[in-house]
Amino acid sequence: MTDNNENSNSIDEEKQMSLEERKAQRHKQRQQRVKESVDAKIAAAQEEKGILLVLTGNGKGKSTSGFGTIARSVGHGKKSAVVQFIKGNWECGERTLLEGAGVEFHVMGTGFTWETQDREKDTQAAESAWTAAEALLKDESIDCLMLDELTYMVSYHYLEVDRVIEALKSRPPMQHVIITGRACHRAIIELADTVSEVQPIKHAFDNGIKAQPGFDY
Fold first, then answer.
1. Strand partners, 194
2. What are the distances in angstroms from CA 98 to CA 70, 76, 143?
3. What is the CA radius of gyration of the chain?
4. Which distant-in-sequence residues (6+ apart) come within 8 Å of 154 by Cβ?
5. What is the pLDDT of residues 33-44, one digit of tens each?
């Protein structure tokens, strides 16, 4: 009886092992197909050029993502710059860190438009910030440029979209540009090489939690 039980257990183990082996083989085959697909895309992507990246949508994290790319650029020894539109004069953790790493900053500095409520003042401030941006978009020494919250300048008609498009098209061929902000104009989206849309699911601020230094700014 004991021998029969041992033989039965042995057969069950062999069947189980066979099942696990088949599962492992199917997994390996799936991963191999994924690898072949990725390898083919890598082999096909041989062009090198400056990338225009747009980070838009109503969710939190667009500027944070853009600053992450600037930090990555600096980490590779690249020269980077940032122009911030619709930002106030309050402390900015990313600016404090990145300026110390040699990143050039230009800040519009009037705050949000619902705070100033002065269209003429905002337009003048936008013009000044965009003049700095245009100079950087002509500077071949700038490897990566972030135009933070630029989309609002176009949406509020402080800047003409055609002027923005022309400057982006005329920039040095290897210069990367990051544009952040909600409701990006379709002409900029069409010109962009990469577009990511950040959508809100939940936001602490909507539940009465204040913006906090070191996390939100």
1. 53
2. 8, 14, 15
3. 26
4. 160, 161, 164, 185, 188
5. 888 787 777 777
Question: Which portions of the chain are predicted below pLDDT 50?
Answer: none
The residues, any chain, with a CB within 8 Å of residue 175's CB and separated by 6 or more, are 50, 137, 140, 142, 143, 144, 145
Beta bridge partners of 80: 144
The Cα 152–Cα 180 span in angstroms is: 9
What pLDDT, on a 0 to 100 scale, did the predictor assign at position 68?
97
Specify the pLDDT at position 195.
Answer: 98
- Strand ranges inside the chain, DSSP E: 52-56, 80-84, 104-107, 144-148, 176-180, 194-197
Asked whether 199 and 57 are in contact (CB, 8 A), the reply is: yes
Cβ count near 102 (within 10 Å): 10
Q: Which residues contact 80 (CB under 8 A, 6 or more apart)?
A: 70, 73, 74, 98, 103, 104, 142, 143, 144, 145, 146
pLDDT (tens digit, 9 = 90+) per residue, 153-182?
999 999 999 999 999 999 999 999 999 999
Cα angle 151-54-213, degrees, rounded to a multiple of 5: 75
pTM tops 0.90, yes or no: no
Give dist(CA 169, CA 171) in Å, integer.
6
Separation CA 206–CA 159 (nearest Å): 31
d(CA 102, CA 73): 12
